[in-house]
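Running this now, will post back.
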Amino acid sequence: MILISPLLLAISTNIVTLSVFLSYGIKKIHLSKSNSILLAIVTSASTFVSMYIGKLILPLIDPKVSNIFGAILLSYIGISFIVENIRLEKKRLGYDTSFYYESSFKYKNLLVDPYILNLDNSHNINLRKCLALSISLSVNNICTNFSASITGVNLSISVFLNFIISILFVYIGYFNRNINFSKYLIRYSNFISGIVLIAFGIYEIFV
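Update: finished.
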């Protein structure tokens, strides 16, 4: 049972990683093995820091309150992901999306359009680009990791699983040859992340 929560956390925070690298796989944009490991290290370090901050706050809050509060936060983040997916889908179809909240943070642009890193047509993610992508992925997951930590999710297992799953998703993205599957998952990655996070939040309330 102790593995379920860290596994749900690692999957939900790395679906965007899978989406990015499915995009790169379609366009044959290369990331070296060493940079793949670097990406996993950076995102895992961010997972550790954001969860550790949550753990520092835990002694100040009643365990029942912190668990419910963290679970509500996870569900709220999940809902925001689903709403963002709806916004992007409507924008793609040409509808007016001005009444939706649109993040002004630059890191979001990279995750929505990962081809930004290939404007030079090099088809290669070098060290500088890898760090930019790693930081964007890390920042994107800070709130999720923090929320999970205050529900009592195991920190060390979460960091370990994040490292493994981030590398796994990078290579699934690269080696997947089903273009239709890739395009479908890229298109609905926020929706899928949102569903997983809502399920994660509900699960945390009852465990």
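Helices lie at 4-27, 33-57, 63-92, 106-112, 127-150, 155-175, 179-187, 189-206. More later if anyone needs it.
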